[in-house]
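Hi again,

Forgot to attach this to my earlier email, sorry! This is the prediction with arginine bound. I've pasted everything inline since the attachment limit keeps bouncing my files.
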Amino acid sequence: MVLDLVAPVLGRTPEDLEPLIEIPPDLNKGDRALPCFRFAKEEKCSPQELATRWKKAICSKRLPEEIERIEAAGGYLNFFITKRILTAEVLQGIYASQGKYGFEKRKKPPVAVIEFSSPNIAKPFSIGHLRSTNIGAALARIFEARGWRVIRMNHLGDWGTQFGKLMAAYRRWGNAEMLREDAILNLYKLYVRFHEEEVSDPTLIEEARDWFSRLESGDAEAKELWQWFRDLTLAELKPLYDRLSVEFDYLWGESFYIDKLPTVLKELETKGLLKESDDATVIDLEPHGLPTALVQKSDESSLYLTRDLAAAIIRFRQFAFDRMIYVVGSPQRLHFQQVFKVLELLGHEWVSRCEHVPFGHISFGDEGMSTRKGNVVFLADVLDRAEQMARKIVEEKNPNLEEKEAVAKDVALAAILFADLSAKRVKDVRFSWEEMLSFDGETGPYLQYTLVRTESLIRKYDRPIDGKANTDLLSTSEESALIRELSLFPVVLRRSEYEREPFLIGQQMISLARQFNRFYAAHRIVDAPEGTNHARMLLVSAVREVLITGLKLLGIPTLKRM
Ligand code: ARG
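Structure tokens for the complex follow:
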């Protein structure tokens, strides 16, 4: 309604302005705000001048009933919506949204390839891969909610010199029996042993190189071993992904692109980008302020970066994406800068649609986390540990609960996933078992607990929610604050898409839960006076809807009881 009012005065369409509208964080600054900075540049005046001018123009006509008043402040045009009307709009909007409050539908959805998770074959799924999986899956859902068509891509690390090492190690010390027992763990042990022994036994390195070159030239025995290692690892990954409810459209690992490598190398050659250095073929990126990129070794074995070039080219050809997002840890920042620069030098204009979305790493607070071998933390161990602790907590809090086991699993997952999304993604996260499982901190279980509160109110009310309840009766300060939180959700959703920050939704959920619990503590709800009770239950059910929507976007399980 704000848009319809201001657009004609400003000579723009409501669609032009829609993405710009913000919700001021501070109640004193109104309910909606239009920043004038961008327009001020065009109009060659200061943002505040423009805001004042626009305010006058809008107020010269009679304001519609929905708008209480308008202020021009700090380069913003602030709109104060008549509270009664905001309340009705938000609550009825949520009531009618069928779990899609704030979602966007576009006639022609743009396409986003989102690459995430991308663990390495024959190596443990580390806690770092959890971050990629978690952030990536959340972004995929957020993009879908915002009207994109999303392609979920898993760039499995299933090719590279490490396979030569693995095969050499397997032939020396391995057997089928141990892989049948625990494939990933034992393959990983073989890998670690290789690195321990290569120091004193250089023939190992030779053997590994030989195996990898056999693999790259299509040798049957090498290929068979590789396939077997890959299948075993995928079989172990499957339950892990199921546990996290994550799915992919494509498992195109690095091996998927190797046929394309000769063409890419040829292209690089034709463009005159290649240079021979001592033991490799390289691209000199120093003029572009980047380190030299290695594209092929002297023994012609292929490289990670070259496989990434091929992958980008093939994916663009296949999907003609509007956006391609790589959810990969910050240490690979330079790598992606190199990849994108080379694609640019090759003349692929679409590289401007590619984007590395980095994230920091997780460390463990309190008692830390033991590692089975080497310096990696296995995700499965982390999940088990959290479940064990959650089981104890659930047992203490609600010993008579049915399905305690399932609830404990969901609480554990909520704790881990939310802790992972508790800060801007580039920040490092410190996991603390005590804190992340707490029911009243800024945690996943706290959100589940709040949701369960709404569920039990709805059970107690025991009749259908009345979408037409008289919302004028919701006028206490707790109710107004809560309604405003609800009205923020669509804006936060949009911002989490623009900034690729699922964490913003997490924060919004916490604020919503806090406001709800304040309201819950201050007022009678189901047994409030007739009329008020129906209006308050409409509010409760709106909170429930939005909590569920938010939790689902973050991949956090929702609960009815706990
Ligand atoms: N497998 C890699 C790793 O575990 C991550 C792959 C990132 N994606 C890419 N297109 N290079 O470090």
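The chain has a mean pLDDT of 93. The chain has 21 helices and twelve strands.

That should be everything now.

G.
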